[in-house]
Structures are given as structure tokens and as C-alpha cells.
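Weekly structure sync, notes
Attendees: PL (lead), two postdocs, one rotation student
Agenda item 3: pending single-chain targets
PL asked that the sequence for the first pending target be pasted directly into the notes so everyone works from the same version. It is reproduced below exactly as submitted, 139 residues in total.
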Amino acid sequence: MESFESGTLDSPDFYFTGDDYRYRFESEAKERFLGLLRERFNSGVRHRDRTLKWDMVIEQKTSELCRHLVGQTSTVDFSEPSPSLHREDDRELRKPILDLAQQDARRVGIGRSTFHYLRINARYRNSFKAHGSVREDCR
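Predicted structure, written out during the meeting:
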């Protein structure tokens, strides 16, 4: 979903092959998607009181599965950690940012350059982050 929302992938990146009735995507689009996927796998996640990268979590879960398959453990827990699919840039945040005037932003303590980039990001479908104080001030 993030790849479409961010514009990394779009409908023209796909083509239909009539011989096997499948959609495929262009090699350049695959590279863009893999870049986004690598970025995602390199993001941190809390697991067993530590922050690990997803690739390390996948490696640990694979080892757990191997130990289970050879009979060294009786259970495998794939439910933890779970990826966070919560977006911070919902419509309830975008609209107030777009409706906020420069002088109002200054009055609540949002700097000029911060306000400028918030407005740019709020105009487009791309995901963006706003710090807690800015989120509170814009709502």
C-alpha cells in the first residue's frame, strides 16, 4: 500500500501478459519497489526488549522455526513482533495543516520552514511524519 501511496508504483508500471493471464511489472518499477522494501526491512522494531531491524527478526524467526521442525522446541510464535500499519498522516491531520495560515502557525510555535514542509507534504498522498507538538497544534 505504501508503494502506491508514495507514488513508487503506479498503474502504468504493470503490464498484462495474455499468454499466462498474469500482470507483471516493469524492471525499473521492481527496482523502485525493492528500494522501498529494503528501507522497510532496515527500519527498527521492538522485539524482546531490544530494537532490531526486520531482517534480523526474520532471521531469528527462521531459526525458531528450524528448531521447532527438528524437535528442539514445541512451539513457534510468529505473532510477535507484528508490523505497525498505523499511519500518522491521516485526513484529520492533513486538512488542518492545509487550512492553517502562516501567522496562526507562528502563533502556536510552528517555525516557518517546518510549516512550509508540512504544507508541501500534506498536499500529496505521500506518507509523512509530524512531531507530537505539531500534531497537537494542528488539530
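Discussion points:
- The helical segments are 2-5, 27-41, 54-69, 91-99, 102-107, 112-123, 132-138.
- The mean pLDDT is 80.
Action: rotation student to compare against the earlier draft before next sync.
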